[in-house]
Amino acid sequence: MTRSFARVPPVLLLFVLIPLLVEGFWVFWPALQGFWLALTNWDGVSPPRFVGGANYARMIGDPVFRTAVTNTAIWLVLFGGLSAVGGLGLAVLLQKERRGVGVYRAALFVPVVFSLVATSLIWQVLYQPGGIFDSSPLADPDTALYAVLVPALWRQVGYVMVLYLAGLKGIDPGLYEAATLDGATAWQKFTHVTWPQLRSVNSVVLSVIVIDSLRSFDVVWSMTRGGPYHSSELLSTYMYSTAFQSLKLGYASALAVVIFVLAFGVIVTYLVRAFREN
To answer: Domain ABC transmembrane type-1: where (predicted)?
Structure first.
């Protein structure tokens, strides 16, 4: 093992170690500090005061937190489910090389290139009373969350489509030829050939969707700032407003820990189940 490590070129070690050190300093260390700050009462100026689990106990009686959790769950199900189904459907539809298919792929991927803030500005114009709606759905507490969800999906579906297209390209065409010889229908080919072969891609898509769902912030903050009346509040937007508007960084860190636990729990549960099936 030592001899193998010694044969690694020094330049290659530098290319690996330097980004690792930068990542550790700017990402991992602040993340670890977040777990400590979640146990404190801190306004960002005075020294943090240790309060133990008081921040987590406070969440139980916090109505805005409960609303944010509910909205985040809705966002995770709809954003994750619709982007996965839509991305897979478009990938299956556009996987075959034929005339003009590249134009459709590029058109569906274009929203991914835009920043979420730019996407939000585009949809804000569409949502104005003079746009495609008579009245802005962003101003209605019953529709604000779903109105914000649409531009997020508009951007995410193209990204998921590309992931599934890469997975579909890796499937052996001989499997489809064998299924055709056996008289399999298009649906049987999908359920017995395509879907099982996409198992590894599904793990990647799930991880991307869960992480993107729980860290969704730009589009919501740009369009509604969690309003009206917290109707579109997510854990990410509540964490931001608590930290940088209310200056309750200890409580905001506790919210960040909750987001991390939710993302970690969902992904690990799926991966453990997938490994057991294998």
So the answer is: 69-272
